[in-house]
Amino acid sequence: MCSHQPPCPPADSADHEAARVVASHPEQGWSLLCNGVVVFDDTGELLPEGRTVEPRRPALV
């Protein structure tokens, strides 16, 4: 999916959120990254193969 240099980290790498945004929809609360990951404003994610990543909530003190 990534055609620029240097290439974005793949969706299965630990730093996949460092990929470039290719489509942004702030009015809907999500962005599509170059590696196919959809990131949501609540920090949740949808990976290209359909797996979800739960939002990361701050620890309550």
From TrEMBL:
Residues 1-10 have a biased composition (Pro residues). InterPro entries: DUF5999. Residues 1-22 are annotated as: Disordered. Pfam families: DUF5999. This is Uncharacterized protein. It comes from Streptomyces lavendulae subsp. lavendulae. The lineage of its organism: Bacteria, Bacillati, Actinomycetota, Actinomycetes, Kitasatosporales.
